[in-house]
Amino acid sequence: MPRQYSITAEAVAQERERVGGDIDKVDIARVVALDELELRAVGASDVRLKILAVSGEHNDDHAALADTVNIAELRGGKMYPGNSAVGEVIEVGSDVSRFSVGDVVVTHCIGQPDPFGYPLRIWAYDQPDSIGWYGEEAVVEEWQLIKAPLDCGLNLWEIAALPLRAPTAYHLWRRGLGIFRLKVSEEQLPKLNVLSFGGGVGELFLMLAKDAGHNAYFCSGSAERREALAKLGIEGIDQMAFNRFASKDDNKAFNAECKKLTDGAGMHIVCDMLRGPVFAPGLACAARMGVNVSAGWQLSTAVNYNSAGASTKQITIDHTHYDTLQGCEEATALYGKVFKPTVHNEIYSFEDLPRAMREMHEAVQTGIPIVRVAKDMPDSVKGLLD
Ligand SMILES: NC(=O)c1ccc[n+]([C@@H]2O[C@H](COP(=O)([O-])OP(=O)(O)OC[C@H]3O[C@@H](n4cnc5c(N)ncnc54)[C@H](OP(=O)(O)O)[C@@H]3O)[C@@H](O)[C@H]2O)c1
Asked: How far is the CA of 359 from the centre of ligand 1 (A)?
């Protein structure tokens, strides 16, 4: 039987009890557990995958913490996490036309599209019966897959960093820019100041901004990640110099720094996937007509702001989620051309996946965490393992 990671409501509760309910002390590695799973038989429109590599994703972190909702409990007491993967097609159903055995594919995480194509539910999170891809094999429907662009110039680990984060960044960027352009035309202001806080999605967002010719600023606590982005012309701002916005004085100093960097204008588009203490400085540093976009709530789900202040500056606060199928295809076409992700300096083994999740939670990684699932890789990716 294929090995597969699971998260149970029981493990979530036991860990909560061990740390006396203090969510800051929860050890994710004690919650995400190696399990086994009999996969369903391959139906006519199904594809069986051998999973090659996966990336650590924050919704698995949220699932283990149960800090937003207790999704393991809501899923009946057990869920199988993992909604980003690169896999090799090893079997196809009789109606499958876009893929053949031997193809290497990436997944998207739309569980069920809404009438406009956006995800109503996310695969391996709140989509009922969805089985995630932190496992050795998977059976999915053909529509859930996109051909991996193996010749895009990225290695396999970099490709594995992107299936979830790149479409999210792609949608955030198009929304932020589109809203800003509704207010201020390209003729009036061709070059924008764009800021993002740390994290994989934020980095990819800035790569899109930089590629479009704008000034891009990355406010991160990680020197390695700032350095990696500096190589792409994205200017780093050390978040630790502002104590991760612990006090009002830190926020003021950060705002002054942003104004200095932008000749007093401020940031026209800000990407904030974290909220919590990051939200206030992200809003304060906005330029007139600025747009603050987010698809994340890593540090808090609630925000508070002065509506009158936002009105007089004509600030827009926008909320997005994952992209449509079409958006996922378009984002995949940008792998290597625009998206050059930073990958953590250790590629974790499958057995070390819980540690990868714990270290992601602790924000100690030098890039996006990647787990090598398959020991034997197909010939088609053997040149992409450096
Ligand atoms: N809605 C969607 O479709 C969607 C898709 C993807 C992600 N998300 C959400 O977006 C959020 C970020 O995801 P991601 O994939 O970009 O995460 P990620 O790559 O793991 O990055 C998270 C970053 O958070 C920063 N961080 C950690 N603790 C912090 C603190 N106390 N104060 C300030 N910054 C801190 C760290 O940045 P530095 O150390 O570099 O400062 C870290 O790199 C998560 O909540 C995730 O669930 C949503």
From this structure: 13
For residue 165, the ligand 1 atom closest to its alpha carbon is: 6
What's the 225 CA to ligand 1 centre distance in angstroms? 13
CATH number for the domain whose boundaries are 3-164+340-384: 3.90.180.10
How far apart CA 248 and CA 228 sit, in angstroms, is 30
Helices (H) and strands (E) in the chain, counts: 12, 18
Q: How many residues appear in the chain?
A: 386
- Helix crossing, 165-183 with 200-211: angle to 10°? 50
Which amino acid is it at 73? E
Q: Is 335 helix (H, G, I), strand (E, B) or coil?
A: strand
pLDDT digits (tens, 9 = 90+) for 77-111: 999 999 999 999 999 999 999 999 999 999 999 99
Q: Which CATH number is correct for 167-319, 3.40.50.720, 3.90.190.20, 3.40.50.300, 3.40.980.10?
A: 3.40.50.720
Grade residue 386 by pLDDT with cuts at 50, 70 and 90: confident
Q: Is pLDDT of 17 > 90? A: yes
Give the domain ranges of the chain: 3-164+340-384, 167-319
259 Cβ contact list (under 8 Å, min separation 6): 265, 266, 285
Instruction: Name the nearest CA neighbour of 174 among 288, 320, 46.
Output: 320
Measure CA 360 to chain center: 12
pLDDT of residue 67: 87
CB 260 within 8 A of CB 193: no
